[in-house]
Design brief:
106 residues; mainly alpha; Cytochrome Bc1 Complex, Chain D, domain 2; 5 helices
């Protein structure tokens, strides 16, 4: 019984961690602050692209800005690629913030 309960709790924690959430930080005025691109990338991309974005089964992203513009990166985030990148893993303002952050990595 204890082992199955522990497995259920651990599995639930992994599921919730993978799903993420609405990580928009709140400003003091109650308005939503701009999304943090680095934080979004580290939460959403490191599983496939490596903890330091050095590549790990998926291409390295640590110098992506030297190869692609911010708009090209945003297009990849939104539409995915035929080489395995699924579309829309990050959406809206979070996708824009992630693209801006990645474009700065050179």
């Amino acid at each position: 019984m204890k082992k199955s309960l522990l497995t259920l709790i651990f599995g639930s924690a992994l599921f919730l961690a993978a799903c993420g959430g609405d990580d928009k930080e709140q400003s003091t005025g109650g308005e939503t602050a701009a999304p943090n691109g680095e934080k979004i990338v580290m939460q959403s991309c490191t599983t496939c692209h490596g903890g330091k974005l050095q590549g790990s089964g998926a291409p390295a992203l640590d110098k992506l800005g030297a190869k692609y513009s911010e708009q090209e990166i945003l297009d990849i985030i939104i539409n995915g690629t035929d080489k395995g990148m699924p579309p829309s893993l990050i959406k809206g303002a979070d996708a824009e913030a992630a693209a801006k952050y990645l474009a700065g990595l050179k």
